[in-house]
Amino acid sequence: MSCENKSNNASDTFEKTRTKYNFNPDWKFIKENPENAQNKGFNDAEWSTVSCPHTFNDVDTFDDYSLGHHDGEENQWRGTVWYRKHFRLPETDAGKKVFIEFESVRQIADVYINGVHLGQNQTGFIPFGYDLTPHLNFEGDNVIAVKVNNDRGDHFRDNFPLVWNHEHWHPTHGGIYRNVFLHIMDPLHITLPLYDNLETLGTYVYADNISEASADIFVNAEVQNEYSEPKTVSFEAKIFDNDGKLVGVSGAQQSVNVGEKFTFSVQTTLENPNLWYTRHPYMYTVESVLKVDGKAIDSYNTPLGIRNFNFDKDKGFFNNGEYAKLHGWGQKPTNTWAGLGTALPDWLRDYTFRLMDEAGGNFIRWGHCAGSPAEVAMGDKYGFVTLMPGVSGESEDEGETWDIRIKAFKDMIVYYRNHPSIFIWEGGNWAESEAHYKEILEVISTFDPNGKRLMGNRRADVKNDSEGYISIEIGTEGWEREYPDLPLIESEYMREEAPRRIWDKHSPDDNFFSHPNIKKNTYKITSEQFAVRQVEHWWDKMGRKAYHVGGANWVFTDGTHGGRGQTEVTRASGEVDAVRLPKEAFYATKAMWRPEPQVHIIGHWNYKEGTKKDIFVVSNTAGIKLYVNGRLVGENNTPESGYLYAFKNVVWEAGAIKAEGIVDGEVKAMHTKETSGEPVALKLTPIVGPKGWQADGSDIALIDVEVVDTKGRRCPLAKGRVDFTIEGPAIWRGGYNSGKENSTNNLFLDVEAGINRVAVRSLLDAGTVTITATQEGLTPASVTLTSNKVEIVDGLTLELPQVYENVLTEEPMPIHMPEIPEYIPGETNKSKLFTKFSYTGDGKAMLRTNMHWGKKSHTDLEHNYTVIPRYLVGSEYIRTPNSDKGYWARDQLQFIAGQKMHIYVLHDDRVPRPEFLLEDFKDTKDNIKLDEAVMSLFHRVAEAGESIIMAGNSDGDVPEDAKMYTVIGKKF
């Protein structure tokens, strides 16, 4: 039975009925696979002492050049390791239920308690747990043992069954790399949302009938009675606002039999609710309380955000009726950090989120596996619309792989369904069969029937089976919409790469253009060009399209996954580097996306005498005035790509350059960059968590090392080696140099563009740590840090992982919006041959009709076809960008044959023929001359409905004057 109860009988504060222990500190670890390590009496005295989050690959990552071709870093140690933790539970916990929760382990985890095998988890990214109660000893020691394996096949397509764990998608860092908790609760309790192994559902909280005047709140709580007798239970659902004030109560009563699981369902109405907006993400907390004989015996807290939303196919995204363009990032859930690998304390994950928020983000797509519990909660509190997957590589999977994937998807939804920031469930990173789509939707309808969330698969366009099942198009590179009847959101745009250290072509080269591998790079662009392209890609692909919901810039942080720049030890696609130092691209997105007035001058102001260069300013204002040493040198009221103001041939003078942002004739924002003096000293700046540096064995302190002039200004061109010393209870973790091998974990590091960042890890012993930095010719610097003692008793602590709290703010509406061309709804792809056409390259490809001599060959060349075979006249063709001649992706060009058709490919044979051409096409022996290139003509026949996927032109070096292939279609 259920009733609404607004009496004052309920406590107006949170109950304290169960205990959540932080189980992270003080594990034993060995990078070997000894026999019988699961047994309680096994001698682990000689093993290393570590604390979680932990990875055993923090010492062998970010240390090799990228392999290129979208491959990852393959030289991490892989194999089987063991973790063991000794602990005692207090006698007060005897007679209670004890559950262990792993937020995830990579890749395969076998868990034992006192020698008993509890089970295996193979997802690598989804939380899981076990009931320890039957196996515990309350009168002495207990031992949790975890066998962890991070091995994988050499090629991602052969990495069966766990295809998503290959470094093509995620670096293969193994270990207990996220948090571990013990939950102690009454035998009559609200279950945990851990469907894997436990098959328990926890709570399900949602809002409906939402307006500014009221909202109906529904609370479902699964309760289990593990007493030996029935219990009459009073259930209360208490709603607390962001300030901790009790604002609503509802209740019910039920007799729960022995061993029974019963779900309480109650409802209440909140008047004048605070709604969850991306710009004002207001959060409530629902406390579910169980009472027996008037006494609270168990309680559980669930997040609640009250929001309406609409993804409109013609108008974009609306949050509580308010239009919002979504802009943000795809981010790897491994979140690798140079020197630390994947094992990060939660506050460092929060540090990254704060940077994304500062840069104007309000959208995140976890790719291609689920984010961590802490990070999804950060999406709630910072207002990030979240596109949430389970686990996936980039394929439609069968057999054991699919079984693991769909189960992980179920586990993920049960665990995360209460988070208001999740608006879209991602069924997979590739199209599925009709049968698989039905399974995905069945999971959603079973476990999130009232979430009203959309579902989509990235690359759903590769199969007609997708029609009728997906409710949003998760686009690829945003050029064309492929489903005119669905809203469109982008999952991966701006996939170019540039390291932080290379400013522009007018600045001294820091091992970039001079790098011996530079010819192998897919991308050879500077930090300045990278920042400019942030604006161009955003505006041209999404920003200027009224119907486009927005999208995810790929990615926010540099990492070791899928790099294409063989001068780097990272994939340098991030707006911040692998230790989260911002690039100029970071400030470019901030200047576009923050609602407050923003202006950013790209670059520095320390050039040589006589330098004349173009200056680029990014601003969300309506015009820019540019000054050099107070003298007006230019005014621009016509931005390119919505936000980019270019000033040609500005003459450098020592002093200051200033840009003023103008709206309605008034200066609304300004940005100044000064010429710094000669380097004179080093400067060290520590960064620790919001509660300080914790001596828990896994907490991190960061130290920024800068080269400064006599006024304390950073010297932006400074580089060179800095040596460090460290004294006190800590482990040196160091940092990295983006363009050097073997730069991590050393007591020396080069500064890049005047700054770098190192890390130290705490031990279990608290104390004072002193770090000193020296560079020849500069005044050295020192900093002293003190790690705080963490109370750990018998392996347990009540100090939970720290994150930033009380972060709620309300952002204004944007100061100015560039003019967006009017959108006239209608189908954009009129081709009857090239249906569901998409192109994932960097440049823009276009569908064109009536192939003929005199037609333009490429979107970015002025070359025309002069002579073509008569049988091609009147064909349709895809005009590709020649700039992508050396770009590679396995799914660069894709379409579904609208009818039976001839497909021809024109290929420049100075470039090695790609695999798809050799396997699927035959050489016609005809050729076409295009400028100086001889294009060979290949042919095949496709049946109606057939999915055609073509990879890049080449995954190797190509001649400078080579041509990108062209695809031609003709009705059979």
TrEMBL record:
All copies of domain Glycosyl hydrolases family 2 sugar binding, residue ranges: 24-183
Domain Glycoside hydrolase family 2 immunoglobulin-like beta-sandwich, chain residue ranges per copy: 205-307
Keywords: Glycosidase, Hydrolase
Organism of this sequence: Hyunsoonleella rubra
Single Gene Ontology MF annotation: hydrolase activity
Protein family membership: Belongs to the glycosyl hydrolase 2 family.
Ranges of residues in domain Glycoside hydrolase family 2 catalytic: 313-450
Residues in DUF4982 domain copies: 610-667
Residue ranges that the Swiss-Prot or TrEMBL entry lists as coiled coil: none
UniProt-listed Pfam families: DUF4982, Glyco_hydro2_C5, Glyco_hydro_2, Glyco_hydro_2_C, Glyco_hydro_2_N
InterPro entries, per the entry: Beta-gal/glucu_dom_sf, DUF4982, Galactose-bd-like_sf, GH, GH2_Domain-Containing, Glyco_hydro2_dom5, Glyco_hydro_2_cat, Glyco_hydro_2_N
Glycoside hydrolase family domain mapped to chain residues: 692-784
Hydrolase keyword on record: yes
Recorded superkingdom: Bacteria
Protein name: Glycoside hydrolase family 2 protein
Taxon lineage: Bacteria, Pseudomonadati, Bacteroidota, Flavobacteriia, Flavobacteriales
